[in-house]
Amino acid sequence: MSNPFEENLGQTAANAGVQTPVQFLRHTASVYPEKPAVVHGDYRCDYAQLYARCNRLASALQQRGIGPGSTVSIIAPNVPAHLEAHFGVPMCGAVLNSINIRLDADTIAYILDHGECDLLLVDGQFADVAANALARSERSPAVIDLVDPLGPQDKRIGESTYEALLDEGDPSPVDWRIDDNWQSLALNYTSGTTGRPKGVVYHHLGAYQNAIGDTLAWDMQRHPVYLWTLPMFHCNGWCFPWAITLQAGVHVCLREVAADPILDAIEQHGVTHLCGAPIVLAMLVNAPAEQRAKIPPGLQVMTAGAAPPAAIIEALEAMQVNVTQSYGLTEVYGPCVYCAWNDAWDDLPAGERAALKARQGVPYPVLAGLDVLDPESMEPVPADGQSIGEVMFRGTVVMKGYLKDPEATAEAFRGGWFHSGDLAVKHPNNYIEIKDRSKDIIISGGENISSIEVEGALFKHEAVMLAAVVARPDDKWGETPCAFVELKEGHSASAEELIAFCRDNMAHFKVPKYVVFGELPKTSTGKIQKFVLRQRALEI
Amino acid sequence: MSNPFEENLGQTAANAGVQTPVQFLRHTASVYPEKPAVVHGDYRCDYAQLYARCNRLASALQQRGIGPGSTVSIIAPNVPAHLEAHFGVPMCGAVLNSINIRLDADTIAYILDHGECDLLLVDGQFADVAANALARSERSPAVIDLVDPLGPQDKRIGESTYEALLDEGDPSPVDWRIDDNWQSLALNYTSGTTGRPKGVVYHHLGAYQNAIGDTLAWDMQRHPVYLWTLPMFHCNGWCFPWAITLQAGVHVCLREVAADPILDAIEQHGVTHLCGAPIVLAMLVNAPAEQRAKIPPGLQVMTAGAAPPAAIIEALEAMQVNVTQSYGLTEVYGPCVYCAWNDAWDDLPAGERAALKARQGVPYPVLAGLDVLDPESMEPVPADGQSIGEVMFRGTVVMKGYLKDPEATAEAFRGGWFHSGDLAVKHPNNYIEIKDRSKDIIISGGENISSIEVEGALFKHEAVMLAAVVARPDDKWGETPCAFVELKEGHSASAEELIAFCRDNMAHFKVPKYVVFGELPKTSTGKIQKFVLRQRALEI
Q: Which of A129, A292, B304, B372 has the fewest CB atoms found within 10 Å of its own CB?
C-alpha cells in the first residue's frame, strides 16, 4: 500500500539538522552574552567571551589540521580550559578525550596510544606524569601547557601554552565540522579494576540528549550557579558542561575537591547546584559546624555511583540540602537514571524518606529503555522489590561502542540491550534499586547478600566513616560477608560492637563474620577497590 | 584516511532509538501514576488512567486496521479525548489530523479527502458540520462520536461512541508502531486566506524536540497546571499536549474560550500557565475588576501570532502576569522562537519593557537555525534593528513538507531554508522583531510602513479594542495606511481623534489617512482577515 506520508517528504537542508550540545553555547552566547559563564579564582568571563574563546580554540585546532577523526586529549582538573575544550574540540569535528588525572603514566601512555592522541593539553600539576606517559607512548602529539594562575606556573613540557594556542585562532564563529548526529564527540576510558581500560565513544546526539536529560531530571531552571566538584574527566562531567551552558548558568571552577574550598566557594559565589560522589557528600556532612553553616538552605546536590548511605542523606536533609540520587555508567553518558521525588512522600519519617532517596530510580525522560532483566532469559524480573536481575539500557544515550573493540561492544550489547553489570531489584513503583555489582554479590548458604545493604547498616553506626563489605570464602557457607571499616576521627568501635550493631539491624545471615579496621584502598575515581579487599579477606 | 571513531561503531538495537513525544506519557505514567493529569468539569483522571485510556485507544485503532499510513481526523474543542488522541493515535503509528473547528463543511470535506481520512472523531457540537462535510467527501471513514458530558448529548452521527471505541481496546501498554524519528505523526492544515489549505506534515522527532523546547524556553518546572485556552487543533496546541505531559502537569480542559470560564478555571484549579493569541490576553485585561481579581500573581502566559500591543502587555504586567512572547508558524510546530527575558531589563520603564517583550526574540535552544535573510540574495540582513528581511528557519523542528505537494514544499524550502513569509528586523542583540507579513507591508512614497507598528500606536488609545491597518492605493504615494477599528464597549472616538493621536506618536507618513469603525472580519483561527479589509479599503 502506498503511504502518502512518506512520499516526497524526505530530509532537505531546510528540515534536517544535527543535534549537538555545541549548539547550546552558540544559543546562550547569542541570548545572554553578558551573563557570567565562568568563575575561577579571580577570573571571570561572560558567555560572549566564553564563546569567543571556544571559537578561537576550534579555529586554532583547525589550522593545525585537527578535525574529524582527530583526538584531542586533556589532563587537567576542573579549570576553565577544561570546560572550553568541551566546546572547542567538538566544534572543529574532533574527539575530546578527557583523561582521569589520577591515572599512572603507564595507563595514560596506553590511552594516548589506543585513543590515537593528536594533541595533548596538560595542566602543570600533571606535567610530570604526562611527560612520563609521553616517553612511554608511541604517539608524538602536539603538547600544549595549560598554565593556570591557580596552578603551578613553571611546569611546562609543551611546545606552546594554551593561551598562545588561542592566539593562533579567530574569535569569530567557526563553521562547525559536524556532519551528523552520530559523529563521534568524546572518548572516555573506563576505570577497569583489572586489565586495560576500554575506550567508550560518545556521539553528538547522545550528549545533546543527556544534557537535556540532566536539566529535566533535576528540574533545573535557567541561570543556576554550578560548582564543579564533579571531575570533568568523569563521563564529561556527566554532560553538565553542556547542561549548565544550555541553562545559561555559571560554571564555578575548582582545582581541589576538599571540604574547605568547596564550602568557601558555595558561600562566595552563591552556588545553587553541585554534583559529587558520596565521598563529597560525606565531606559536607562531616565538616566542622562553622564551615557547614556556609551551606545555604535549598542547595541542590546530585550524587551517583554507589548509593550514599541513608545516614548521610538524612544528615543533608536536616541541613535542608536537597539530594537527588542518580545512576549511570561511562557507557551511558554518566547518569541517565534518577530518583524522581514524589511529593506524596514528603510526610514520611526521615528514615523512610532517606531509603526512598537512595533508590536509583527511573530513566531520564530522554532515555528510551531501562529495565532489570534476567541476563539468561532477557525477560524482565517481576517488579516486587525482591527479584534480582541485571540493569540494562537502550536508546540514544547509550554509547556508540568501545573504540577498536568490536568484540567487547557486541558482548556489551548482546540481546539488544547494554548490559550494565549492576544487579538490582525493581520496586512495585518501577523504581530500580541497585543491590550490587555482579561481581560484588555475596552468596552465603545459597542466599544472595547485597554488600551494599550490609554497608548501609554499618554506616548507621555513629563511629563509621566508610565501610566496604566483600565475600570471604567459607567452608560451611560458601561465602560470608567480611567488612572493612574506616572510623571517623575521634571515634572508636570494636569489631564485636559493630557485629552486634549489625545483628540488631538485619537478618543474621547477612551480618559480617569479620570486621577489619584501616584505610580503604580506592581507585583513581575514588571508588573503593573491592578486588584488593577480596584479596585481603583471603588472608585473614 | 581511516577514522577509527566511525568504524564498528554503528547503530544497533541497544544504542539506537526513536525520539517520540509518546515516550513522555509512558515516562510520566511510570513515575507519577497518581498525579492528576486531566481536569474537565467534574471529570478527573491521573496519569496511570490517562496512559491506560491512550493504550485502549491505540489498541482499538490497531484492531480496526489503523496504523502507519492511516489518518485519524478529529473535530473537537479542548476536551480530554482530544488530548488522548495526541498519544493514542501516534502510538498505533497513524497520523493525527486535528481539524480547525471553525471551518466550513466544504473546507472540512476537502481536508478529509486530501488527508485521506480513515477514521473521524467528532464532538457533538460539530456533528452537523461534520455530517455535511462527510456528505460532500469522497472518503467513507469510520465515524466516532465524542459525547462530552459538558457538550451536546444527542448529536450523534457515528457508528459508535468514543467510550465504546475505548472499550474495544486493551489498557495494557501497546507495542508502539513507530519505526523511526522521521515517521509522520501529525497533519495540520494551514488556514490559507486564499486558495485551498496546505497539509503540513510533522514527524515524531520534531514534536519531541519542540515539546522539550516549550519546556526550556518557558523555563517551566515539573507539575505545572496548564489551562487549555489555546486550541489543540492549532499546530497540535503548539506541542503542549506533549510538553505538559513531559513535565507531569495538569491539563485543565476548556470547551469555550471566553473570559468567564477562563477566569473561573484559573481560580478553581490554581492554573499556573496558559497560552493564547493576543485576543485571549485582551479578554483577561478587559474583564471586569472582580473577575480579573481571580488571576494570581505570577501567572505565566505565552502568546504568539501577532505581537500583542504593548498596551496589553503593560496592563498584564501591572497585574503581575508574566507574558512571554513567542512566534512560529504551522510549518515549524507552532512557536519555536521566543522573547527570552533578560533580568538586566527589569529596571527599565514599563513602556520600554513592554516594547522589548513584544519582540519575537530568539530561537528555542532546540531550533538549529533562525535568521532574517534577504530572500533574493539569501544573505542575512545587518543586525541593526532597521533592515527588513524575511524570517527563515532550518532544522529538525521544521515540517517534513506539505502533503502531496512537492512543488509547494520545494518552494517553501528553496535555498535550504524554510521561508516564513514574515518580514522582520534583527536587533543588535540578535532578537528578531516581526514587522509584517510580506503581503501586509505598506509601501508609501517608497518607504516601508509596518502595519503592525501603526496598529500598535492605535492600541495605545484607551477607546481602541482591536485595530487592523492595510494598504490603500493612492495616486500620489502609491499606498497609504488605512485603519479599521473596533472600539471598546462604552467608549467612543472619532476618526479625526485617532488620526491626531497617531500623529502625536509616530512619523507622519505612517499615520492612517482613513479610519473606519466596525467589527473586524476574522479567520477561523481568529486572525483578522486583512484581504477582506484591503477590499473594503478599495471601496472607500
A: A292
